[in-house]
């Protein structure tokens, strides 16, 4: 019956801005994630440059100590939660349904809701800059530093509430991809035939599902401490600040694997494509990914070696941490063996992928060094740690994201990025990266503390810091070159081939670039790993369809996710300022009496009720329309 | 026309022989018995406190398995993924609980 109903119903199609606000198409949501992620990545990058300018010379006074604290806190928080995670989600949205031969994600409406809650959470967090001061307790927000006693501005409230709302979006996205990958794979695509990027997205989503509730609980407890006078982390009232560290890192360590696993997936797609060889050791790659995820939940206390957990705990967490080097090493060797004997093409995407391998190994080696508890007492809270995690996050993840963006740009936008500019991007970014962070290992070993606003001259810090700052500017140049490339490419006419790299192996290369809104006119039949490559090698022009041409059921666009997120944004602001002393009587009334908060929640719940009561069956693209598009 | 064929296919695929209510009624009675035993152990008095706690825990674990297996259909075919993810969730949640109970407030 639902079918008959939906066939008769013609859908309202929006254009322009409304189209983007109401879209539930995974490809458009992917582009939205990319735009928002790039915006926050830019903000985080500017913060990084400001940090490096402050540290360019001894006893510099470019920014005050308070602003410096805000800069380092917001740089870390913005980059991790609002910069790279959305860009990962951008690639997952744009590519995963195509790679598994699906027409969309499992829950298109939720997909849109996830994006808008992330965006409004991120905007709320960044509003702190113009509303009384940004968070200043570090991205880890350790108590008691983040308590009202030591952090008196609203900054940490923006952190707890903003991340809470943004985290909702991430959790929604993670669940969506889990269900999509479990239930919507094309006929014939068993789990062990899934492309590696899909595998890593799957495992990453599972980790999001398990790790994000921990930070949610932590943020709720912290905001209750700060706004409602609770005392979970207040020693004087029987609370325990170490509890925060545990909760944060039970989330925080899986989080860094949530970040790096998709990069592993991208590298595992790009290297085989540009080596014209199948991925070496596919099943060991899958096994290693699962093992990394599993171990990732059992190593959190290695961030807390100096907290005083005792030698037994330190020893156990040391060993567990070192174990992770084993599956990671498997991956590294698999990539090397994939390249071995291949016909390697040094495209920009592949340059980033190949550059990733040694860079990530360097980050991994310092990781094993840090895993040793006795040594960690020396490294802890020095620039050695800063160097380590930038090697894995920038040298690993950001290299991976650049690789993936160059690789999938033609699929997402129908235009290929300029190769010459792409190579310039790689070399400036890579050289800038190593200049910035390689020397920081030695700064750490020489005793320069992490998060320090200034340092005295003649401690052997001066030259190394200068080099580091020069490197940071070079990285900035690399990013700007990439943006120039994007702008120039956008001006070119669209319409590259289905398989612009000519060696595409997976399903996304079997359909037009960019794909039509329904992705696959007929769902393909998958006959092996690297499904498209297999058909090409068998001499077939395209995929064998698994179904006759029929009307395609599509979800309707909806403004409700946007409205729900706006409501949460307003409620968050209302809750945050409920304890503020206002001189204005009106402001005092609407905030201190929770009126703003209630209005926001009412907006969100009204949108949820509307969604529940009104059954939207979506619409169909009829066979005739499909045929017409085929001719055009 | 094609749409009708499609929806027919869907119904055929999802048609399975219903189990009938007998098993569920039995399971329901079993659940109530479990609850009654737990209740009685506390209400009756005279039961050793340590024994009562252990009994309650055993009843609770049995109850969880009954609820999950029958009412949440985890015993049925095609539920491997939900089971896997529940075990995963259990693993992570218990890590956090053990951390808080025996490590932070030991």
TrEMBL record, chain A:
It catalyses: 4 Fe(II)-[cytochrome c] + O2 + 8 H(+)(in) = 4 Fe(III)-[cytochrome c] + 2 H2O + 4 H(+)(out). This is Cytochrome c oxidase subunit 1. Keywords: Cell membrane, Copper, Electron transport, Heme, Iron, Membrane, Metal-binding, Oxidoreductase, Respiratory chain, Translocase, Transmembrane, Transmembrane helix, Transport. It comes from Paenibacillus campinasensis. Cytochrome c oxidase is the component of the respiratory chain that catalyzes the reduction of oxygen to water. Subunits 1-3 form the functional core of the enzyme complex. CO I is the catalytic subunit of the enzyme. Electrons originating in cytochrome c are transferred via the copper A center of subunit 2 and heme A of subunit 1 to the bimetallic center formed by heme A3 and copper B. Its EC number is 7.1.1.9. It comes from the Bacteria. The lineage of its organism: Bacteria, Bacillati, Bacillota, Bacilli, Bacillales. GO terms for cellular component: plasma membrane. The chain crosses the membrane at residues 31-51, 71-96, 108-130, 161-184, 196-222, 242-267, 279-300, 312-337, 349-371, 383-405, 426-446, 466-488, 559-578, 590-610. The gene is ctaD.
From TrEMBL, chain B:
The keyword Transmembrane helix applies. One of its GO terms (cellular component) is plasma membrane. InterPro entries: Cyt_c_oxidase_su4_prok, Cytochrome_c_oxidase_bac_sub4. Belongs to the cytochrome c oxidase bacterial subunit 4 family. GO terms for biological process: aerobic electron transport chain; electron transport coupled proton transport. It comes from Paenibacillus campinasensis. It is a multi-pass membrane protein. Keywords: Cell membrane, Membrane, Transmembrane, Transmembrane helix. It holds the Pfam family COX4_pro. This is Cytochrome C oxidase subunit IV. It is found in: Cell membrane. The chain crosses the membrane at residues 25-45, 51-71, 83-105. GO terms for molecular function: cytochrome bo3 ubiquinol oxidase activity; proton transmembrane transporter activity. The lineage of its organism: Bacteria, Bacillati, Bacillota, Bacilli, Bacillales.
């Amino acid at each position: 019956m639902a079918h008959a109903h939906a066939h008769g119903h013609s859908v309202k199609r929006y254009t322009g801005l409304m189209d983007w606000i109401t879209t539930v198409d995974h490809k458009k949501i992917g582009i939205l994630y990319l735009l928002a992620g790039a915006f926050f990545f830019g903000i985080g990058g500017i913060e990084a440059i400001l940090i490096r300018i402050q540290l360019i010379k001894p006893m510099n006074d470019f920014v005050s100590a308070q602003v410096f604290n805000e800069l380092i806190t917001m740089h870390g928080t913005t980059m991790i939660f609002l910069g790279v995670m959305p860009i990962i989600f951008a690639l997952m949205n744009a590519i995963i349904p195509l790679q598994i031969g699906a027409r969309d994600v499992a829950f298109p409406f939720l997909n849109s809701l996830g994006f808008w809650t992330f965006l409004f959470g991120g905007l709320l967090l960044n509003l702190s800059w113009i509303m009384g001061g940004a968070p200043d307790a570090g991205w880890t927000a350790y108590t008691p530093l983040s308590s009202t006693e030591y952090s008196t501005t609203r900054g940490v409230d923006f952190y707890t509430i903003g991340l809470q709302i943004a985290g909702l979006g991430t959790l929604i996205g993670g669940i969506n991809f889990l269900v999509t990958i479990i239930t919507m794979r094309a006929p014939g695509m068993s789990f062990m035939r899934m492309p590696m990027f899909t595998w890593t997205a799957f495992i990453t989503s599972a980790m999001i599902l398990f790790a994000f509730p921990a930070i949610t609980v932590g943020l709720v407890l912290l905001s209750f401490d700060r706004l409602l006078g609770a005392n979970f982390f207040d020693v004087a009232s029987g609370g325990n600040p170490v509890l925060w560290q545990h909760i944060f890192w039970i989330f925080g360590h899986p989080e860094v694997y949530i970040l790096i696993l998709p990069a592993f997936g991208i590298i595992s797609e790009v290297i085989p494509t540009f080596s014209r060889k199948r991925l070496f050791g596919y099943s060991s790659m899958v096994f290693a990914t699962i093992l990394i995820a599993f171990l990732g939940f059992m190593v959190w206390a290695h961030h807390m070696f100096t907290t005083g957990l005792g030698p037994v705990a330190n020893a156990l967490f040391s060993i567990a941490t070192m174990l992770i080097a084993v599956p990671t090493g498997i991956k590294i060797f698999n990539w090397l063996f994939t390249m071995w004997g291949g016909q390697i093409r040094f495209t920009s995407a592949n340059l980033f992928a190949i550059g990733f391998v040694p860079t990530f190994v360097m980050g991994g080696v310092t990781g094993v060094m840090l895993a040793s508890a006795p040594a960690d007492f020396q490294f802890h809270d020095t620039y050695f740690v800063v160097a380590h995690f930038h090697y894995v996050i920038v040298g690993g993840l950001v290299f991976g994201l650049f690789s993936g963006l160059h690789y999938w740009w033609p699929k997402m936008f129908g235009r290929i990025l300029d190769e010459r500019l792409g190579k310039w991007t790689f070399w400036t970014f890579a050289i800038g990266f190593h200049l910035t962070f390689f020397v920081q290992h030695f700064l750490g070993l020489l005793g320069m503390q992490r998060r320090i606003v200034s340092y005295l001259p003649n401690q052997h810090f001066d030259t190394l810091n200068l080099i580091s700052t020069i490197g940071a500017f070079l990285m900035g140049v690399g990013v700007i070159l990439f943006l120039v490339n994007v702008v120039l490419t956008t001006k070119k006419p669209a319409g590259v081939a289905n398989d612009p790299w000519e060696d595409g192996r997976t399903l996304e290369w079997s359909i037009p670039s960019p794909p039509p809104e329904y992705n696959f006119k007929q769902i393909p039949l998958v006959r092996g790993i690297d499904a498209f490559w297999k058909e090409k090698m068998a001499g077939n022009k395209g995929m064998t369809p698994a179904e006759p041409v029929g009307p395609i059921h599509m979800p309707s666009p909806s403004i409700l996710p946007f409205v729900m997120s706006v409501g949460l944004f307003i409620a968050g602001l209302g809750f945050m300022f409920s304890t503020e002393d206002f001189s204005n009587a009106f402001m005092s009334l609407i905030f201190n009496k929770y009126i703003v908060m209630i209005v926001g929640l009412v907006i969100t719940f009204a949108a949820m009720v509307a969604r529940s009561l009104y059954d939207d069956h979506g619409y169909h693209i009829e066979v005739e329309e499909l045929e017409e598009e085929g001719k055009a | 026309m094609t749409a009708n064929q499609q929806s027919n296919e869907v119904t055929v695929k999802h048609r399975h022989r219903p189990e009938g209510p007998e098993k569920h009624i039995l399971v329901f009675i079993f659940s109530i018995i479990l609850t009654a035993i737990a209740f009685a152990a506390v209400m009756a008095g005279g039961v050793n406190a340590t024994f009562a706690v252990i009994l309650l825990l055993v009843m609770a674990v049995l109850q969880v398995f009954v609820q999950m297996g029958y009412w949440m259909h985890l015993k049925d075919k095609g539920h491997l993924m939900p089971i896997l993810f529940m075990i995963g969730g259990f693993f992570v949640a218990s890590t956090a609980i053990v951390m808080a109970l025996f490590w932070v407030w030991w």
